Structures are given as C-alpha cells and as structure tokens.
Amino acid sequence: MRKYGDFLWLFIYNAHFYFPSPRKYWGLSLEYIYTREAGHRLIKDRRILHDSFVPRKLPGREEEIRKFSSLLSPLLGNEPSVNVVFLGKPGTGKTAVAKRVIQDFSELYPSAPIRYIYINCSRANTSYRVLYNLNKEFGMLIPPSGYPYDELYNNFLDAFNRMRSWLVLILDEVDLLVKRDGDRLLYSLSRLEGGEKGIMIVGISNAPNFLDRLDPRTLSSFSPETIIFSPYRAHQLFDILKQRAEMGLQEGSYEDGALSLIAARIAEESGDARRAIDVLRMAAELAERENAQKINEEIVMRAFKHVDEEEVMITIRSLPLHHKLVLLAAARLLAKGDPRPGTGKVYYQYKRIVKDYLAKPLTMRRVSGILRELESMGLLEIKMDYGGSHGNTKVIGSLVMPPDEMNRILEKMGFS
Ligand SMILES: Nc1ncnc2c1ncn2[C@@H]1O[C@H](COP(=O)(O)OP(=O)(O)OP(=O)(O)O)[C@@H](O)[C@H]1O
Ligand SMILES: [Mg+2]
C-alpha cells in the first residue's frame, strides 16, 4: 500500500509534465495568450469590415449626400418635398448614403416632424410583405400571413391619416418588389393624400432601367427626382479602403500600395466598394492566418483569387443539380485539353456524368438552354464556331476561371 502511496505523491508532484498547464503564461494577460495562440492579430474590429457597417463619412459621395439632404430639408420647415430614386450599380453606396443621411437628420434634428421607415424589398418583395412591415412599424401586431390584404392596407391608411409628421419611406431594392409583384403598391403609395403632412418615397434600385419598367400612370404620380450613383473611381476606392483600414485594422498592419492595388483593380472591373472591402477583409484574414506582419500586394493578389472563388462557389451552390452537372461536363472537357468543345460534346459528357448521379438526363434542347443560363450568370462564355467540320456550331469559349480551378472548386463541393 505504502508503495502505491509514494507513487501517488510522485505523480501529483510532477503533474505538470503529464498535463500541459497554463503555468508558462502565469502573470501574462489573457489578450497576450490569445494573440499567441491565434497567430498575429491584424484585425482590430471585424465589424468595420462587414457589409452592414455604415461609417460616419462616406468618401466620394459628398455630392449625392448633399443632393439627398437638400431634397429632405423642405420637410424640416413643414414644406412638402418630392419623391426620389437612387439609381446605380451594386456597391456604389446607395444604401449607405440613404442610411447615413437619415441617421444624420435624426441626430441633427431630433424634434423635426419626420418619421423615417426603411424597408428592404429583397426580403419584403411583395406588396403584402411591405404593408405587413408598415403595419408593424405603426405598432399593429398581426399574423405574418393569412391576413386580408385590404385590411392591411386600411390599417396602414388609418395610421398614416393619424400621423402628425411626414413619412419618409425608403424602399431599398424596390425593383425586386416591382419585378415580383408589379407596381400597384408604388402607385397607391405615391397617390396617398390625407394625413396632416404627407409621404416622400425614396426608391433605391441597381437596375438602371427601373423607371422604364413602371406603368406610365405609376410613373406620373411617382415622378421622382433621380440621383445617379456612378461606379467608384480608383482614388475614391482608395479613400474608402484607407478609412476602413484605419478603423478596422491595427496601425502599421498594411501597406498603402496594397490598398492602391485593390482600388485600381476594382475601379477597372466594376467600381464596386463592397467587393473592394471584401478583398481587404480577405487579405487581412490571409495575413493573420499566415502570421504576416503586413498586408502587402502579394497577399492582395491572393485575396482577389479567394474572393473570386468564394463568389463562384456561392453562385454554383444556388444552381439546380442539372445546371451543376452541365457545368461539370464543360469544365471536364476543357480541362482535358479540348479548347472549344461544342454543345453536342458537352451533352454527351453530361449524359455520362448524369449516370453517376442516378438522375434521368434532360434533353439536348434543355441542356442548350442551361448553357445559355450559365452564360447569363457569367459562369461561362458561348461562342459561334463558323465553318467547322460540322458547319456553324455553338462552342464553349471559356469558363469564368481556368478549367482546372473550376474542377477543383466543383470537387470541393462534392462533384468529382
Ligand atoms: N462612399 C463610401 N464610403 C465608405 N463606405 C462605402 C461607401 N460606399 C459604399 N461603401 C460601403 O460599401 C458597401 C456597399 O455599399 P452599399 O451597400 O451602399 O451599396 P449599394 O449601392 O446599396 O449596392 P446594392 O445595389 O448591391 O445594394 C457597404 O459596406 C458600404 O458601407
Ligand atoms: Mg443596397
């Protein structure tokens, strides 16, 4: 017994050899421990690099902010104003400007007789859902479905008529509402009368021809002032990135040249600030993972590749099975060295692949249709091959990325 007792003491005394303990960190701060364990921390505040963050200052949008503010300001003096639309490509700051100006107005003029309601029509993409949200905003609790449309509308109308302030209604991504459900709600809202004050509708859309899609009657009562948001240029994107880097990253953790590179490339391809910030975030994550001291141009180049890959993966993930299989067939043929496989060849390859997935093959006609859909999503390019051995035929010109990489992505997603 005694023998075992000795062993026990020996065991307890030397326990730190058997069980690694945090002893080596005693006296050090938790922050230090986490930094050591997790690698070099470059990101100071991850939220700043997130899409939903709206900074106090929006570089490059001073003119749009001024214009929108001047359209809002008559309401401060109890004068009516006009409706507005913001038009511009994705990532040009439309949502950010709308939110920034509303927030600034609310803070600067807290007692102004204005009520702001923001509704994103990508979620509320039917008239019913928009009205449901409006009912909720006015404190009416109703079930989310099954309530009669007319009652929803009348509830809102009653609340509007009782209002003592102006209603500024921001319908973001309003084109999605009109596409899904027509423009009847926009028509009714822009003809609203009554209320002690009135309504000002701010429609936001990234479809440049949004107004052309409206019925002439709707257009004539809505008749908005237009604020155009042009794609950002390189120097504006640089300022946007610099601001995010200063706020969200540790001091000295990035080279200005790296930011310039992101700005220049994005200005050339789209002018989309969202994508520029995505690349910066990805570069910071890569640098952290690799324990790099600074984000440099080399890391940025790789960040672009990762972001592109992520975007392609998101698009592919949303595709139905047969679309994925047709894409796989095209990628395999191109990767095997066929420089311009015709649609017939793609169909043959697709039929062989379909067997592995125990699915019934679609017709050649349908597969041609799918190829056109994949082209419109930007995943591949179809070209005409004039005067080949089979006469004029359609061929796959290229994929959005090198075929080997596309195959690798598809493999990652379980298609091999
Ligand atoms: N001028 C700017 N300054 C700082 N950040 C900006 C600026 N413009 C856009 N951003 C940021 O870029 C991202 C995209 O901007 P925003 O959401 O406003 O684009 P959008 O024009 O509404 O695009 P979409 O049509 O896709 O909705 C957001 O994170 C936003 O905060
Ligand atoms: Mg937006």
From TrEMBL:
Residues of the AAA+ ATPase domain: 80-233
Domain of life (superkingdom): Archaea
TM segment ranges: none
GO molecular function annotation: ATP binding; ATP hydrolysis activity
Keyword set, alphabetical order: ATP-binding, DNA replication, Nucleotide-binding
UniProt-listed SMART domains: AAA, Cdc6_C
Biological processes, Gene Ontology terms: DNA replication
Residues reported to bind ATP: T92, G93, K94, T95, A96, Y232, R244
Domain Cdc6 C-terminal residue range list: 327-410
Family, per entry: Belongs to the CDC6/cdc18 family.
UniProt cross-references to PANTHER family, sorted A to Z: CELL DIVISION CONTROL PROTEIN 6 HOMOLOG (PTHR10763:SF26), CELL DIVISION CONTROL PROTEIN 6-RELATED (PTHR10763)
Chain's role: Involved in regulation of DNA replication.
Protein's UniProt name: ORC1-type DNA replication protein
Species for this entry: Candidatus Methanodesulfokora washburnensis
Taxonomic placement: Archaea, Thermoproteota, Candidatus Korarchaeia, Candidatus Korarchaeia incertae sedis, Candidatus Methanodesulfokora
